[in-house]
Amino acid sequence: MTEFSDLGLSPTTLQAVADTGYTTATPIQAQAIPVALAGQDVLGIAQTGTGKTAAFTLPMVDRLASGRAKARMPRALVIAPTRELADQVAASFEKYAKGTKLSWALLIGGVSFGDQEKKLDRGVDVLIATPGRLLDHFERGKLLMTGVQMMVVDEADRMLDMGFIPDIERIFKLTPPKKQTLFFSATMPPEITRLTKQFLRDPVRIEVARPATTNANITQRLVKVPSSDPKAKRLALRALIEKAGIETGIVFCNRKTEVDIVAKSLKVHGFDAAPIHGDLDQTQRMKTLADFRSGALKILVASDVAARGLDIPAVSHVFNYDVPHHADDYVHRIGRTGRAGRTGEAYMLVTPSDDKGFDKVIKLIGSTPEEEKLDLDYSNAVTVKREGDRDRKRGGRDRGDREERGGRGRRGRSEDAAETPAEVAADAPEALEERPARERRPRRDREPREPRTVAPAPIEAEPRAARPERPERPVRGVQPVRDRDDDDRRVVGFGADIPAFLARPTPGVAKANTDN
DNA sequence: AAAAAAC
């Protein structure tokens, strides 16, 4: 057992840790913190739930505490694959940087640029970002990465899955080669290995045991649903939730559309449920998560955006409404319960058409979970009723082969009929119709990157001498540096007064700002 | 076969 006090952290940082109530470091923390404090690169191979976030946040806070931020020049960068994950890292900074003057900003998509830009202009020590928004700020000339001394890449293998590797490479190239990098990944596929070989400098490799695929605290059960009709599955889900006596639960679906439908259906049936997935408004996503964390919301209906990495404490139940596409996802999903010594229950609804995915899950976990019998009458669920039909907005979706529905066959989207007005409301997925069709970005890891043409030229030619810590004589347009103590967050560098040459758009920059 | 991430 390693105590935090044995790791070489400063008294201020240790106090912040003590305030959170933690005393014992996890294995990844015990191994990574001393290495990181010594300024070495870290290659951390660790799953979520191993205490990874604190493993890089704590040494970062410690190492940065003595310096100060310059306008638009962060000293440290944390890149995370999803917005929620980035938000979580930010929460970690909020806790651990409490006793310092360090500032941080969260740069994620889905929220306005205004506040983020304001913070960048004022100068922040640490940027916590998703790749897209970070590069967006860079292209707008709002950000220089030439002052980055520390960089963290979190969940690298997930970034690979999401096609972010070219972005990560680009960010690496925009930061000075001589910086400290802390790189985390749960697995090491070849592309990730290549990346670490290219950008890490003699890293210390720290590998913590992959947590058992099935945590002993989790009771797994499966529920056989005799029909693949979504209506039957929803019926089973409701019965299950009632029977299970949940405190808090997450219902995982494979598709965003299904998340919406299931959440709506549960709400209509009087359950305290809300959806979360990547097409929902970001403020909504954050609010739903906050409600769920605080206990104000009991049931979270989620896509796999919530399967990994999210720190959601004390979930008593996980329901796999759909058998996950990847068996790995099953492990991540049920890992949302049974954490920190608590017990948890995980259920999986299995329909006749799920056999393939189901087999993969069984193979991975090595045994077949016990079956939970619900003793339900599914006949309503598979009977096609017509009453509600005229009230439903179909949004141009094809109703097609209605007649041949015996209730057993495979169908496309949930087109099931409903038996009550409430069901109609639950089943009419207006949300789907209102959702703007998303333009998918092409996966860029397949294409060669375009040469960068719109880099903010003046920023590139960042003259070191033009940003003296203490200029002998005042330079026009440059804020004289004052003593740090007479002001809590004085920005050093250009501050709000940007010299005219910097403010002048270069053709490239102007193009970047006006393009679409 | 789907989710995630920039306007």
From TrEMBL:
Catalyzed reaction equations: ATP + H2O = ADP + phosphate + H(+)
Cited InterPro entries: DEAD/DEAH_box_helicase_dom, DEAD/DEAH_RhlB, DEAD_box_RNA_helicase, Helicase_ATP-bd, Helicase_C-like, P-loop_NTPase, RNA-helicase_DEAD-box_CS, RNA_helicase_DEAD_Q_motif
Record CDD domains: DEADc, SF2_C_DEAD
Positions of the UniProt region annotated as Disordered: 385-490
A Pfam family the protein falls into: DEAD
Residues of the signal peptide: none
Motif (Q motif): 2-30
Domain Helicase ATP-binding intervals: 33-206
Biased composition regions of type Basic and acidic residues, renumbered to the chain: 385-416, 432-452, 461-490
One Gene Ontology cellular component annotation held by this UniProt entry: cytosol
SMART domains assigned: DEXDc, HELICc
GO terms under biological process: response to temperature stimulus; ribosome assembly
Domain DEAD-box RNA helicase Q positions: 2-30
Composition bias, Low complexity: 419-429
PANTHER family: ATP-DEPENDENT RNA HELICASE RHLE, ATP-DEPENDENT RNA HELICASE RHLE-RELATED
Family in the record: Belongs to the DEAD box helicase family.
The protein, known as: DEAD-box ATP-dependent RNA helicase RhpA
Organism encoding this protein: Caulobacter vibrioides OR37
Lineage: Bacteria, Pseudomonadati, Pseudomonadota, Alphaproteobacteria, Caulobacterales
